[in-house]
Amino acid sequence: MSDIQFELKLKVFWFKNILGLAIDQVNLNQKYPLTNYYFWPKTEAWEQLKLELDSKLWLTKKEKEQILQTTGDVMKYWLSYRNTKTVENLKEEFKEIDVLLINN
After folding, report:
1. How far is CA 91 from its chain centroid?
2. Any idea where the domains of the chain sit in the sequence?
3. The pTM is what?
4. For 13-30, what is each residue's pLDDT tens digit?
5. Helix (H, G, I), strand (E, B), or coil: what is residue 19?
6. CATH number of the domain located at residue range(s) 6-100 in this protein
7. pLDDT confidence band for 103 (50 / 70 / 90)
8. Terminal-residue alpha carbon distance, the chain
9. Exposure of 98 by Cβ count < 10 A (0-12 exposed, 13-18 middle, 19+ buried)?
């Protein structure tokens, strides 16, 4: 095992009708895509992220559980507030995630 410290970071695209979710591994300020993007509720995003994380043998059970818990919390928040809250509200509520914006 390496002594390099890393963290898992949830990336989110917030739209009124869909939520885009992916996970990066962050090492020393470098971000590496760990999963594909999945768009919920169009796909079973949480399950797909879990399957991808389970294939990453270097991740601990605790690391996987924590990022999946955050993912579930973001999904519940979006489901409850997608019509009344903004991306800025999401950033305030979940400081540990990356919220990605698309400029029109």
Report:
1. 13
2. 6-100
3. 0.89
4. 998 899 999 999 999 889
5. strand
6. 3.30.390.140
7. low
8. 44
9. middle
